Amino acid sequence: MKEPNKQSAPRYRAVITGYGSFMPAKILTNDQLANMVETSDEWITARTGIKERRITTDKETTALLATEAARRALEETDCKPEQLDVIIVATITPEMVFPSTASFVQSALNARNAAVFDLAAACSGFIYGVSIVQQFIESGRYQNAIVIGAETLTKITNYQDRTSCILFGDGAGAVVLQAAGDGRKGVLYSTIAADGEQWKALNCQAYGSRHPSHKELDDPNKIFMEIHGRIVYQQAVRRIVESVTDCLEHCHLAVDDVTMVISHQMNQRIIESAAKRLNLPPEKVYINIDKYGNTSAASVPIAFDECVREGKIKRGDIVIFVAFGAGLTWGANVIEF
Ligand SMILES: CC(C)(COP(=O)(O)OP(=O)(O)OC[C@H]1O[C@@H](n2cnc3c(N)ncnc32)[C@H](O)[C@@H]1OP(=O)(O)O)[C@@H](O)C(=O)NCCC(=O)NCCS
Question: Which of 233, 235, 273 should be mutated for ligand 1, with most atoms under 8 A from CB?
Answer without folding.
Answer: 233
